[in-house]
Design goal:
The chain is of the alpha+beta class and 153 residues long. It has three helices and seven strands, in the order ββαβαβαβββ. It has a seven-stranded antiparallel β-sheet with strand order 2-1-5-6-7-4-3. A hairpin with a 4-residue loop joins strand 5 and strand 6. The chain is elongated.
């Protein structure tokens, strides 16, 4: 079992074993993924009543704080031993992210004891890390934005 095995599961599938995909950072020592995963969602606004006859605004005695949905952007990389394998893995990974299970993705991070239920919004910042026109090992990185309707934080 390699060091990337079991780090990220999407809908129960180990993305490293299935697609050669893993979470990465833009720069060595970066913490963008952890920051995105653990950033708390905004609180929903409270409804107040602004009576003309009273100063200020009146709110319920029990505000019952709740969270807004949140967007989570994760930075992935895909590695493969050949150009053909890389193209196949990349296409399959993006297809899986877009389709999910009826569109839903259960992104599980065992090391954090966390599963986030999200759906795919878009993918940005694609960067080939190798030259795709030559044979040999290939890799790329890219960001994927997800929406988490019921935030875990």
């Amino acid at each position: 079992m390699g060091t990337l095995d079991g780090q990220v599961l999407i809908n129960g599938t180990d993305i490293w074993r299935e697609y050669g995909a893993f979470l990465t950072e833009e720069k060595k020592g970066g913490r963008e993924n952890l920051t995105a995963i653990l950033a708390p969602a905004k609180a929903k606004s409270h409804i107040g009543v602004n009576f003309r006859e009273h100063d200020g605004t009146k709110y319920s005695e029990d505000l019952k704080p709740k969270s807004e949905e949140r967007d989570v952007t994760l930075h992935f990389a895909i590695f493969a031993p050949t150009r053909e394998a890389w193209l196949s893995r990349y296409r399959a990974f993006i297809k899986m992210l877009k389709e999910g299970e009826k569109g839903w993705l259960a992104v599980t991070l065992p090391s954090l004891g966390l599963t986030m239920t999200m759906f795919y919004l878009d993918s940005t910042s694609f960067k080939p890390l190798t030259y795709l026109w030559t044979e040999g090992v290939h890799a790329s990185s890219f960001k994927v934005k997800f929406r988490e309707p019921e935030p875990s934080f």
